[in-house]
Amino acid sequence: MIVYIARRMVTAVFMLLAIAFVTIALFFGASKDPARAMCGKPCPPETRAKVSAYMQTDQSAVWQYTEFVKGLFVGRTYGEGAQQVHCQAPCFGYSFPNRSDVTTLIAERLPVTLSLALGAAVLCLVVGIGFGALSAIRKGGIVDRFSTGFAMFGLSVPTFLVGLLVVQVFGFMLNALPYSGFVSFSESPTDWAWHLIGPWMVLSFILAAGYIRVTRTQLLNELSADHLVAMTARGASTRQVNRHAVRGVMVPVVAMFALDVTALLGGSVIAEKVFSLHGLGDLLLSGVNESDLSIVVGVTLFSAFLIIIGNLIADLLMPLLDPRIRRA
Amino acid sequence: MPDPVLQVEDLCVSFTSGGVTADVVRDLSVRLDGGRTLAVVGESGSGKTITGRAIMRLLPRGASARGRIVVAGREMLSADERELRRARGSDVAMVFQDSMSALSPYLDIGAHIAQAVRLHDPSVTRRAARARAVEMLDRVGIPEPADAVRRFPHEFSGGMRQRAVIAMALVNRPALLIADEPTTALDVTVQAQILALLRELQQEYGMAMLLISHDFGVVGRVADDVLVLYAGRQAEYGSLRDIFEQPAHPYTAGLRAATPRLDARLDTGGERTRLRAIPGAPTSLRDAGPGCAFAPRCGLADQVGERCVVEAPLPTVRPTSEVGGLHLAACHLDRLPALQEVTR
Asked: Is cis: bond before B282, omega within 30 of 0?
């Protein structure tokens, strides 16, 4: 097991390095010079060359990559003299438009994304598993028909539409919920939740669809499984049998959940935009718009890191839930 | 006469779906004593599995049973949930056809058997229950039982799994074992081993066994008595010998002719014989008419004529070669002609 984890960790590191390279290469392939945005207007060629040299964007993608990796371990220094900026190790790059290193930027935005992600994750689990289980138990009933339709809708409707509808209906028409802004948890937990209900609803509506479907099919499979009949035949009560059926449902749900949560933690661009929340998704979007390479690479790597960790956790949990995966 | 371990009287099982009710088992009566094996034979859909399930009250949703079922002195159809739980796995246990799906993929073999023990006697500690599991695995012939209890169902071969399922069923020494096609999923050599094991354990424990099968070869090896079901009704009942040597129902005769036999050549004096199929397929239970359910497929219906179509035959007593034996057949014909004619 320890060997397995270690091997997965090493693979993860190489994967992250590869992702960093691809991101940097793609960014430079787009041939948009970040120095241009920083040099102001008008921008004579000499100034631009100077700015470019200062920001170190005049070098090749390969050079950028090696500097980036070096920066992770020893930190990185831009410019000289009075204009010198130092980015401490581990340095994920320095954002000149924000005059801040990327690590700090991510740390600033993280609470927003974290609140958004965790709330949405909990809500979508409750709704998804709840409705999925109810519709499996009363197959063909009202709940089943409603939640199947609900799931179809959730799977096929784009996030921005649901987001705008929620803002329009709850924010403007009913005037029941705030349609933008963020209050930190430490400031006021109730205000924090109050401001996040809208985005939570939107994200969990989209995500719950998958859980409804998986829970429903899996539980239907389990409930008609011979081994549960056999368990009843051994003298187990309905409650004991149902409790055992839940195990079979847990396996795919955990796998899905690990991926969804980590994807959410990487920032949800559209939901953040719709509700004007300044989380990681918003940060990434601004990085792209302002041709800020450091932010793009930093946030991309951070999301990739989370997803890899999430996958690792799921892979480690899976054999505990389903012995068939062990020793495979 | 001692009280029978299993007594079924006028059992009817019906399914209701979409407002339509269909009887899948009708007017079935069975009596089975300890130490004896009754084979229930029939095609798919003849109601044999449903009969087995009805005895344990394990019917699927939408099915209901009427009549009377008594297992080891306990009325099963009127029993409440608690009483049923006490009976299941203790008075009456079941061995399933597909051992892979009958075992939970999430529990090791030992947990299955230990669960069966502890469900019926909570005073047994976990450790003691696992020890019982090891003992039981050893008894059913699983090598290195102490190691085998920790293995999971998918790590076992089909034959070993079926042995484990038998161990699980018998750990509480049930008075009645319902074996639903216990060897159908196994290859022929393993089949013989499992049948021998069942037979041996039955003698050791003195339990009654209800063997559900479609295979006359298997039936011939283990059964004392045979019940032939057709479309949920009793077609013929009798001792193994009567059923094999002087079948009184055309369907039984047809099933016999459709069973491959290693000694077939001897029977016909060395002449090559072909297996005969029973023409047609079982009629839908929903549009069953008033007549004999087998009539549309019966080669002898013409000889009887109108009566087969308008009147369902009731089981009547037939000649038997056993002393004090009972041989019943539900056919309007008093005597069957030679086998060749029966199946045309």
From this structure: no
Paired strand residues for B65: B13
Q: What is the pLDDT of residue B268?
A: 52
In this predicted model, what pLDDT tens digit does every residue of B258-315 receive, in sequence order?
777 655 544 555 455 667 777 777 766 666 678 888 888 888 888 887 888 888 888 8
**Which of the residues in chain B have pLDDT under 50?**
265-266, 270, 343-344
Residue B344's pLDDT is what?
45
Half-sphere exposure of A23 (CA within 13 A, CB side): 26
- Partner-chain contact B120 A235, CB within 8 Å: yes
Amino acid at residue number B234: Q
**For position B270, what pLDDT does the model report?**
47
Please list the ranges in chain A whose pLDDT falls under 70.
29-33, 81, 326-328
Burial of A77 (0-12, 13-18, 19+ CB in 10 A): middle
Q: State the smallest CA–CA distance between residue B89 and chain A in angstroms.
A: 4
Contact A119, A325 (CB under 8 A): no
Question: Which of B106, B149, B173 best tests the A interface by mutation, with the highest count of A CBs <10 A?
Answer: B106
Partner-chain contact A233 B56, CB within 8 Å: yes
* Interatomic CA distance for residues A297 and A284, integer angstroms: 9
A244 touches chain B (CB under 8 A): yes
The shortest C-alpha distance from B60 to chain A (Å) reads 9
CA angle B51, B55, B58 (to 5 degrees): 90
Q: A193 and chain B: CB distance < 8 Å anywhere?
A: no
Specify whether the CB–CB gap between A256 and A218 falls below 8 A: no
Per-residue CA distances from A44 to A23, A35, A39, A297, B260 (Å): 29, 12, 9, 28, 97
Query: Which element (helix H / strand E) includes B179?
Result: strand B176-180
Within its chain, how far is the Cα of A96 from the centroid?
A: 25
Q: Rounded CA gap, B288 and B295, in Å?
A: 11
Report the Cα–Cα distance between both ends of chain A, in Å, rounded: 12
CA distance A70 to chain B (A): 47
pTM score: 0.77
* Beta pairing class for B225-230 and B37-41: parallel
Whole-number Å distance between alpha carbons of B214 and B222: 13
